[in-house]
Structure formats: structure tokens, C-alpha cells
Write a structure and sequence with these properties.
heterodimer, A: mainly alpha, 0% strand, B: alpha+beta, Heat Shock Protein 90, five-stranded mixed β-sheet, 5 strands, 66% helix, elongated
């Protein structure tokens, strides 16, 4: 898979981002972490393609992994479920930062791709999504298929499960060509993830404007 | 690629496909179970509310049609007594007053159980009447505004009326508010009901987890029966806001 095709596929992040920008005024504040994450994701893709095209993009990618995990945890916090307790939320954020520092700086160099933080953060995010999905099943009384949180959580489960799998296989793959082929799967998974996010952003109900001047 | 690597890649593909199937099945089964769960919940809650409303209607009718006439007949009989002593005249007067009080109280109870205005003149008239009665009794300024033609079934009207009653009562009891604004208006395929008070607000999470949010659960149950989308927010700055988007065609007929 050549670099241009990978870049074009990664630009699918523009779909949910543009939808988010167009609907920005209508989208409730609770979804802002996701929109910020999409914007940072686009910046990361551009940096990786234009500034790190001929060398390893480990530095921006490693930093992006941390931001992505923190933003998604913030997003889960805004959905007022398992992370509604401020101390639990702050502890989790702190634990992620510590894990990142240990994995990317203490144990290895930030210039290298490492396995542990990516797997740990993906696993935490998948577990948070599963918990949110379980909450929705028991508490939500509307059509799940149009529920943006349901779509986002499923997209997260889908994408991050594949990311864990791909990272593990990538890490243990014996040869460079094989690593690239494994990475190729993640490119298509990422494309599907962005499409799911795009649909979810379109499904976000508009902010309720309360009392209107009547009569 | 060597054969070992080819096999490794095939293993990756197989695991990917299997993972995809598991996730797909996970999502489909979730949606299926959720649909069934929601349907059962709505049928259950609808039956409970219908039973409650029917029982209220029966009690209101019994009080209004049976107890009222009997009390009126008792008063008539007492008034036919020819009392000569001042003491007897006083007793008749007192009895008349007591019977009047009981009659007023039975009318009030009957009205609270099911207002006649709601049955005869519809939702807007009933809410106006309820608001004027409430402001007479409590130091709360209530502003009710409605616009457009609101065409709803009797069941929907009763549920919306109960929602307004519940919110008003909660505002009086807990909010410490001086102003409650209520709006009701049609919007596309919905009827929107919004209320806002200027009270102290409450912490939604604490209320829901402490088991004290019975009023909120009642509102949610009524909203579920109506198939309405309920959103609310509460804080010291803005007071408490409720908004219901009620579909004109109810989900469970």
C-alpha cells in the first residue's frame, strides 16, 4: 500500500470533522472533546505526511496516542456514566499520562513505536465503550441505531479492537513487508471508523433551545 | 513473502475477519435485545399509567356523582329542621358550614383526580385553570403560554397535564422559585412543552442516585408513555428547565 493511498484514506477524518464544523452551533458542548480530537487527528495526519514523509513519524504519532486517549476519556466523562465521579476521572487521566511517560520515555525512546501504552489505552477505551453500551441498553428508551453515543461507542469498540490486534501482530511480525500489510488492514478500519463518526455526528440531536418568545 | 510469513498474514486476516464477525454480531444482538426490552418496558409502563388514570377517573366520578349528592341531601335535610332554641340554631349553622366544607373538599379532590375542564374543554383550558388555582394558593407567579393548534388524543392530553402538575408541584415544594414559565407549542410533527423556573435548582446525579428523584422518574415514565424526548438541566444560575418533545402520533397506539 503506497503512502499516497494511506494519506488519502486517513483524510477521511475530514468527513466527521467537516460535519462537526457545519453543525458546531447545534452540537451540545458535551461532544466537544470528540470534535477537538478530530481536529487534532487531522493536524497529526498532515504533520505525519508533510513533515515526516521520509522519516519515522513515531514522535507525532506517540504524542497523538496520548492526546487521543485523554480526549476520549474526557468524552466518556461528559457522558456522565462510569466517569462521572471527578476523582475516578482524574485518576484515570493521571494513570494514562504516567503509563505513557513510562512506556514512551522511561522504557523506550519517543522516537520508537512501542506496544504497551497503545494496547493499554485501547483496552481502557474499549472497556469504557462497552460499559457505556451496556448503560444505553438498560437505560435508553429511544431507537439505539440513531443514538450518536451508541454509534460512537460501537465505532470505538470496532476501531480500537482492531488497533490492539494490529499492534500486537505488527509487533511480532517477522518481516517488514508483513508489518506493512498488517498496517494496511488498520488503514481500512480507520476509514470505516471515520465514516461511523461522520454518521454519529449527523445523528447528534441539536441543542435544545428552551423558552422561546411566544405569541 | 516466505511461506511462514504468508501463513502469519493469513492468520492475521482470519483473526480480523473473526473479530469483525464477533463485533457485528455483538452490535446486532444489542439492537435486537434493546428493541425488545424497550417495547416490553413501554407496554408495562403504559398499562400501569392507564390503570392509574382509570382508577383516578373512577374515584373522581364516585366522589362527584355519589358522595356530592348525598352530602347535598344531608344539608337539605338539616335545613328543613325547625330549631327553636338558639343552641339548636347554632348547631344547624355549624353543621351547614361543615357540610359546605366537605362538599368543597370533595370537589377539590375530584378536580385534582381528574379535572372536568380537561375532559370537556381540552388541555390548554385545563392548564390555564390549574395555573390560576395554583397562583391563588401559593406565592408563585406562573406564566403559561401556548400557540397554534395542538391536536392530541385524550390520553396524551392527560399525560401532559400530569407532567405540568408534577413540575408545578415540585417547583412549589422544592425549588423555592418565585416564577415558573410554561410553554406549549406545535413544531413539525411534535408538540413541545418547556418549563423553566428561577429556583435553586438541584444536582441531577445526586437526585437520581440517592433514590429521591421520584418526581423525575414520574416525569420520565410519562415521557416514555408519550414517546417523548425529555431533556432537563438544573443549576443555581438558571433554575430548572424541562423540555419535552412529544410526537403527535404516539409510538404505542
Amino acid at each position: 500500500m503506497n503512502k499516497e493511498l494511506v494519506f488519502v484514506c486517513s483524510l477521511s477524518i475530514l468527513l466527521p470533522l467537516i460535519a462537526g464544523i457545519i453543525r458546531f452551533k447545534k452540537i451540545p458542548e458535551s461532544y466537544y472533546p470528540l470534535l477537538v480530537l478530530l481536529a487534532i487527528g487531522l493536524v497529526n495526519e498532515l504533520i505525519c505526511y508533510f513533515l515526516f514523509s521520509d522519516k519515522s513519524n513515531a514522535i507525532p504519532t506517540n504524542i497523538y496516542y496520548l492526546i487521543e486517549a485523554l480526549m476520549l476519556v474526557w468524552q466518556f466523562r461528559n457522558w456522565r456514566n462510569i466517569l462521572k465521579d471527578k476523582r475516578v476521572y482524574q485518576s484515570l487521566q493521571m494513570a494514562l499520562v504516567i503509563a505513557w511517560v513510562i512506556d514512551k520515555i522511561v522504557l523506550k525512546n519517543i522516537n520508537h513505536f512501542t506496544l504497551y501504552f497503545t494496547v493499554l489505552s485501547s483496552l481502557i477505551i474499549v472497556l469504557l465503550s462497552v460499559n457505556q453500551l451496556n448503560w444505553l441498553i438498560t437505560n435508553d428508551r429511544k431507537k439505539l441505531i440513531r443514538n450518536p453515543i451508541f454509534i460512537i461507542c460501537n465505532a470505538i469498540v470496532f476501531y480500537f479492537s482492531y488497533q490492539v490486534m494490529a499492534e500486537v501482530f505488527y509487533y511480532f511480525a517477522p518481516e517488514q513487508t508483513l508489518k506493512k500489510d498488517i498496517f494496511g488492514i488498520l488503514v481500512y478500519v480507520n476509514l470505516a471508523y471515520n465514516i461511523f463518526l461522520f454518521i454519529a455526528i449527523l445523528c447528534i440531536p441539536p441543542k435544545r433551545t428552551f423558552l422561546k418568545p411566544l405569541l | 513473502m516466505h511461506s511462514t510469513e504468508e501463513n502469519f498474514f493469513k492468520a492475521v486476516i482470519v483473526v480480523s475477519v473473526l473479530l469483525g464477525i464477533v463485533i457485528f454480531y455483538f452490535i446486532i444482538s444489542m439492537i435486537k435485545h434493546h428493541r425488545l426490552n424497550v417495547l416490553q418496558y413501554k407496554i408495562k409502563i403504559k398499562a400501569e399509567i392507564e390503570t392509574l388514570e382509570n382508577e383516578r377517573k373512577r374515584i373522581a366520578t364516585d366522589i362527584h356523582d355519589e358522595l356530592g349528592p348525598i352530602l347535598s341531601a344531608v344539608r337539605l335535610q338539616i335545613n328543613h329542621l325547625t330549631a327553636t332554641h338558639q343552641q339548636d340554631i347554632d348547631i344547624v349553622k355549624k353543621s351547614n358550614k361543615y357540610i359546605d366544607d366537605v362538599l368543597t373538599k370533595t370537589r377539590e379532590i375530584s378536580y385534582n383526580l381528574l379535572p372536568n375542564t380537561l375532559v370537556r374543554k381540552g388541555l390548554v383550558a385545563a392548564v390555564n385553570e390549574f395555573i390560576s388555582k395554583t397562583t391563588e394558593l401559593h406565592p408563585l407567579q406562573c406564566i403559561f403560554q401556548s400557540k397554534g393548534t395542538i391536536s392530541l388524543s385524550k390520553d396524551q392530553e392527560v399525560n401532559i397535564y400530569r407532567i405540568i402538575q408534577e413540575i408545578t408541584n415540585n417547583t412549589i415544594k422544592h425549588a423555592g422559585a418565585t416564577l415558573l414559565q410554561i410553554q406549549l407549542y406545535p413544531e413539525k410533527d411534535f408538540v413541545v412543552l418547556t418549563t423553566q423556573d428561577n429556583g435553586v435548582g438541584f444536582d441531577i446525579d445526586t437526585k437520581m442516585t440517592s433514590g429521591k428523584g421520584l418526581g423525575l422518574y414520574n416525569l420520565q415514565s410519562r415521557a416514555d408513555v408519550l414517546g417523548a424526548n425529555l431533556t432537563y438541566s438544573s443549576s443555581k444560575k438558571i433554575g430548572t428547565i424541562y423540555s419535552f418533545e412529544i410526537p403527535v402520533v404516539p409510538p404505542i397506539a
